Amino acid sequence: MVELVQEKDIYRSAFARLEAESNPVGGSALIALRTQAMARFAELGFPTLRHEDWRYTNVARIAKTEFRSAVDCSVDLDERAIVAETFPEAQFHRLVFVNGFFARDLSSQHGLPKGVQVGSLAETLDDDPSWVERHLARYASYQDHAFTALNTALMEDGAFVYVPKGVIVEQPIHLLYVTMPGVEPIVVHPRNLIIADEASQVTIIESYVGLGEGVYFTNTVTEISVGEGAVVDHYKVQRETTQAYHVGTTQLYQRRSSTASSHIISIGGDIVRNDINAVLDGEGCDCTLNGLYVPAGKQHVDNHLRVEHRKPHGNSREHFKGILDDSARGVFTGRIIVHKDAQKTDAKQTNRNLLLSDNASVDTKPQLEIFANDVKCTHGATIGQLDKDAMFYLRARGISADAARSLLVFAFAGESIAKIKPQPVRAQVQQILLERLPQGDQLQGLS
Amino acid sequence: MVSSTEQTPMSSETDATLDRWQSEEYKYGFYTDIETDSLPPGLSEDVVRLISAKKDEPDWLLQWRLKAYRHWLTMTEPTWQNVHYEPIDYQKIIYYSAPKQAKDRPQSLDDVDPKLLETYEKLGIPLQERAILAGVAVDAVFDSVSVATTFKEKLGEIGIIFCPFSEAVHDHPELVQQYLGSVVPHNDNFFAALNSAVFSDGSFVYIPKGVKCPMDLSTYFRINAISTGQFERTLIVAEEGSTVSYLEGCTAPMRDEHQLHAAVVELIALDDATIKYSTIQNWYPGDKDGKGGIYNFVTKRAKCLGRNSHISWTQVETGAAITWKYPGCILIGDNSVGEFYSVALTNNHQQADTGTKMIHIGKNTRSNVVSKGISAGFGQNTYRGLIKITKSAHGARNYTQCDSMLIGDKCGAHTFPYIEVKNSTAQMEHEATTSKIGEDQLFYCNQRGISTEDAVSMIVNGFCKEVFRELPMEFAVEAQKLLEVSLEGSVG
Prior knowledge:
The structure holds two protein chains of two kinds.
Chain A: H1 2-19, H2 27-44, H3 60-64, E1 68-69, E2 93-98, E3 101-102, E4 117-120, H4 121-127, H5 130-134, H6 146-154, E5 159-163, E6 173-179, E7 186-188, E8 191-196, E9 201-210, E10 216-226, E11 231-239, E12 244-254, E13 259-266, E14 271-280, E15 286-293, E16 300-309, E17 315-324, E18 329-338, E19 346-355, E20 361-370, E21 376-384, H7 388-396, H8 401-417, H9 423-436
Parallel strand pairs in A: 1-7, 2-6, 5-8, 6-9, 7-10, 8-10, 9-11, 10-12, 11-13, 12-14, 13-15, 14-16, 15-17, 16-18, 17-19, 18-20, 19-21
Antiparallel strand pairs in A: 2-3, 4-5
Helix pairs in contact in A: 1-2, 2-6, 7-8, 8-9
Chain B: H1 12-22, E1 36-38, H2 45-54, H3 59-74, E2 97-99, H4 114-123, H5 127-133, E3 137-142, E4 145-149, H6 152-157, E5 161-164, H7 165-171, H8 173-179, H9 190-198, E6 203-207, E7 217-222, E8 233-238, E9 243-251, E10 259-261, E11 264-269, E12 274-282, E13 294-304, E14 310-317, E15 322-325, E16 328-331, E17 337-346, E18 351-354, E19 357-360, E20 366-376, E21 380-389, E22 397-407, E23 412-421, E24 427-436, H10 439-447, H11 452-468, H12 473-487
Parallel strand pairs in B: 3-7, 6-8, 7-9, 8-11, 9-12, 10-13, 11-13, 12-14, 13-15, 13-16, 14-17, 15-18, 16-19, 17-20, 18-21, 19-21, 20-22, 21-23, 22-24
Antiparallel strand pairs in B: 1-2, 3-4, 5-6
Helix pairs in contact in B: 2-3, 3-9, 7-8, 10-11
């Protein structure tokens, strides 16, 4: 227990520093929120394997590391270093955060429709603290999740997107989080708030990248509120370094007849945990959660999904695919909860895993909790290896073993990648995957 | 209960039949008054010693019981399960109760207390007739002491041992000592530890090398006498190349008090052996308000120890207020096969949290899981299963299917599978669906002159067919009948 107290102490001092600020961001409402979240975190502590939601993911290494709060070092960042991470400026609005701080010089936006706000969350809360009361932490509950509580207590900045009623933002908004670790391990707590009002449309892409050597920890929370009839597409491409810990929550809250999708692509990271929660709190909602994780080496990727159908006539589709090589470990938990009133729900969940190595392992928990009787709910999970017949077919045609294997792996991932709508993002994910595959260069242009 | 905003557009006839079924009374509720030789309620080391002494057990078994009891004291009751019940007061349970006649055991059916036989009659188990006509040897357990064993001699001729557990302790101590607790150790879990400390009796089966048991072995467990928790212990050992099919079925008298049933079943299959274990469980489920009923907290586990061994669990769970068990297989031998087929039905306020555990350790081990859950009334039905493929299980294969059916809008169906794979040559598939009886299906049947009741019965029986098919003939008939009784008034 003594140890546990010390673990929390690091964050307590960070919290004390924030509390002591003479001109706090977000006013008294945010201070109150932070205080409550910090108290909750102190109660919860870091989860252990005895915690059902964390039984396959050990975060002891995160808990034991003495992380320092990150400092703003965007001036040290050469713009050329992140060129590869960005998308064409003409087609995307871009917000860049370096070590969690908004980097205005690296960001760009042009021709946003009237009334649309895209910018730093800290600045927005400074200008109008009422956003805190109305939206902040209203969707992502920190009651049962220690990391969300920690983020809520210690958040400094992140993206804020507001799309008013009936407005369509045609160009996707790209949120790029760059972390530059130093000698000492650092922690960043990006916090994003995305609000799409009635009948609006917006596409959000979150990218997480690490530059340089060093241990760091990204603890991110994104809250997305989807108004009546609104359409929100969300993408998260996580490419941290292999020394990084990444814990992220994506919270979708959907109102009547809205359509939302979230695509979680996990490529980097040492220990990675994604919580994707969707609440369908209106009739006729449509929710798609799509995922791809490709850990290798000693990487550990945990995707934890929870889809809650609260009202009738909701559709949800979950499709997560994993390709695991070396000693990688994949964890999947998918939970569909259908409340008593949510009749005519149609929920489907699939988790497919490809084990490429004898040391790789997968733990999967697809779960259904159903309290309504007129529903269609299915889940399926498979774990297997590459089809021997398909391998033989390719080998018989003179394709090398490596290339054949890569081709089949690429095809397996193809289904998930094809669901990514913005072409530059799709091409980027494809490229990353091909670079990881042996003789992947031979597959260029296949897609 | 809040009604749903969108009422399911079911015909009023269906509603009526559903109501009728949901209020269906337990048919097998009666109580036979037999003077019992009971201990006062409560549990202590003395009680454990007394049980052991009453059964005239050897010292090693007493020590084993005590070890289990001492360990049990250090354990806390689990709380992770998806069932809810009033806390059990373990000091209010009577841990030993035997019919008076226990002292001079009946040698044949004629010696058996006629009142007992009457009980069986009421249950529709004509012991004698069944034994002779159906070729079933019945080792009937009435409360805690076995009172009748049939066909024992006939089985004895080919070397099969089929006897009450307490008898096996005296006659075949070396076998019991070798295998007791080898699958479910005395400290396995809270209820298994409790059972190990106070188990009353049960069945012991030993099939020698190369012997195919010529008949299905069968035991009827019953709970009688107020507040007697029954702690059965079953041990089946199938030697190399042997085959046995074991049936277990139960009904219990109606009463108001909750009763605890914490049994332990251990199966061991050696090289090329096959064990088929079938259960029909129809204990008193409590009345329609959820009062009374039996707690069925059972630990059942099988060990496929030998190469090419095969163990299959089949269960039809329609009774008990709470059913909480996970019959599992540990597949150690190469090429061994584990199977699990289950139908679990919850009506009124019944709760079930059941499923299976398949642990693949040997090479090319295979497991097949088919689970059908039916929830009606306020019933809550949970499938919870673990498929674990360890690193050594090269070429392991699993197929799991769990389907749930919901009848009425106040019940719940839940699925919590755990799948852990550590070997890249393993193949694992899991599928689950949840649905209700299609209105179009009912309409189709109605249109052809089949009443809603018959139609629902037909559909539910079809839904469970994959499991019923696995039951031995006699049981398959009984299972269908049982489902019909349980679903009577609406769902066949």
